[in-house]
Write a structure and sequence with these properties.
By secondary structure, this protein is mainly α. It has 7 helices and no strands. Helix 1 packs antiparallel against helix 5 and helix 5 packs across helix 6. It is elongated and about 75 Å long.
């Protein structure tokens, strides 16, 4: 039997979760019996069809498959996204435009303040 840690659910844990769902338990109510964090239980339920479609055997099968394929491989896919290439000329124009907008706003605020002081 696999040792239960706060981050890993066993098949037995998942079967208990399914039973608790059928009995109408909240995640908070089932966590002391599962001996896992509420967030781990919640993520497992959400990742495996929600309360209506939760199947402990499918959930375990998915976890086993991911462990075989390796979470590392899945993470590498996310990490290999193309990086944003910035054209320095376009960036310089945008900065210049923003600086100009700040100047306009500063002058507008100054004019408004002067009008307010003039009306007092």
């Amino acid at each position: 039997m696999q040792k239960n840690t706060p981050h890993k659910l066993t098949l037995e844990d998942r079967i208990k979760i399914a039973e608790f769902i059928k009995l109408g338990y909240s995640i908070y109510g089932m966590s002391p019996f599962i001996k896992s964090t509420k967030s781990t239980i919640s993520r497992d339920i959400r990742a495996n069809g929600g309360r209506e479609k939760y199947d402990p055997y499918k959930a375990q099968e998915l976890t086993t498959r991911l462990l075989k394929e390796g979470y590392k491989k899945a993470n590498q896919t996310r990490m290999n996204k193309p990086k944003l290439i910035v054209d320095k000329r376009i960036l310089a124009k945008k900065i210049e435009s923003l600086e100009f907008q700040v100047e306009i706003l500063t002058e507008t605020i100054r004019d408004i303040n002067n009008k307010i002081k003039g009306n007092l």
